[in-house]
Design goal:
Layout: H1 27-39, E1 47-50, E2 61-67, H2 83-95, E3 99-103, H3 111-118, E4 127-133, H4 136-141, H5 145-162, E5 163-171, H6 183-204, E6 210-214, H7 215-224, H8 239-268, E7 280-281
Parallel strand pairs: 2-3, 2-4, 4-5, 5-6, 6-7
Antiparallel strand pairs: 1-3
Helix pairs in contact: 2-8, 3-5, 5-6, 7-8
Length: 283
């Protein structure tokens, strides 16, 4: 792929999380970002356990949610309506088990930030499943696709060491419902998002424990049909938007966890199996 041409340009060094060289937003988004900043919607530090339908004996499923402002719950003023909590609630119903969710997301985080700042936290607190939502800030701040690819691979390598089950990498973002920017800028952002989404998909390919979730295909139509899914700042999803995301991601994650459990059982009895390597979800 064309963005892989920079793969061998030397060791990968993290830029400063305070002021990376490309951290100044391009002029075309500076105004809209200032308007988003005016709303100052809160994010949330989330670490809660949600009871499932059947809680006896089994330990809670440990779920980690990493990524940007969406993973941080921005847009839902009540933390109980933030994506990580709604995702845990939906997942507990699907797997009939309590779920403990730790939210590691940070507003403004790019793929590099998630790999450098958030993934290492799982060393002290491993998870059975993880959901990563990232890419919007890479698009807005102009991260080159080849760099998105490199840091996504580094991120997934780190998660593979500390997540015993399934990792959902959620990307291929679209800006159709982002009213904080005008229609021409939305089309431009969608164009810039395409190679970023391709880089994410490429990074997840060939990894049996990973699944790339195409957010544009999975929930794009529902967001376009539901204006109330967006928050007051016109940039982040609101509580309803967080619910739409949680429903889709919980269903997909439960399916992947079930498949992994069946795979382990088949291995124990010596039956052949084929891993579902790096598939893309369009649920």
């Amino acid at each position: 792929m064309w963005w892989e041409n920079e793969e061998e340009d030397g060791p990968m060094v993290a830029s400063s999380p305070v002021q990376p060289s490309w951290d100044r937003p391009p002029g075309w988004v500076a105004g809209p970002l200032r308007r988003v900043e005016e709303h100052r919607l809160p994010g949330h530090a989330i670490d809660v356990t949600v009871d499932g339908p059947a809680t006896a004996a089994r330990a809670p499923l440990e779920l980690a949610v990493l990524g940007d402002s969406v993973a941080n719950g921005v847009g839902a003023r009540d933390p109980r309506l933030a994506l990580p909590v709604q995702l845990a609630e939906q997942l507990a119903v699907h797997v009939r088990r309590s779920v403990t969710v730790a939210g590691h997301g940070r507003p403004g985080a790019r793929t590099e930030d998630v790999a450098v700042e958030q993934a290492p936290r799982l060393r002290a607190r491993p998870a059975e499943a993880a959901v990563v939502i990232v890419g919007s800030n890479d698009v807005v701040l102009g991260t080159p696709p080849w760099r998105v690819l490199r840091w996504t691979r580094r991120l997934l390598d780190a998660l593979a060491e500390h997540v015993s089950g399934t990792v959902l990498l959620c990307g291929n973002v679209r800006f159709d419902t982002v009213t904080a920017i005008g229609p021409l800028l939305r089309r431009a952002a969608n164009t810039l998002a395409v190679p970023v989404g391709c880089a994410q998909r490429q990074a997840a390919r060939g990894r049996p424990e990973m699944r790339f979730v195409d957010l544009a295909a999975a929930v794009g139509d529902r967001f376009r049909a539901t204006p109330a899914a967006m928050s007051a700042d016109g940039f982040h999803p609101g509580p309803l938007g967080h619910r739409l995301l949680a429903e889709t991601l919980a269903r997909t994650l439960a399916q992947e966890l079930s498949h992994r459990q069946h795979t382990v059982r088949r291995q124990r009895v010596g039956q052949p199996w084929q891993p579902r390597a790096g598939r893309t979800a369009h649920t």
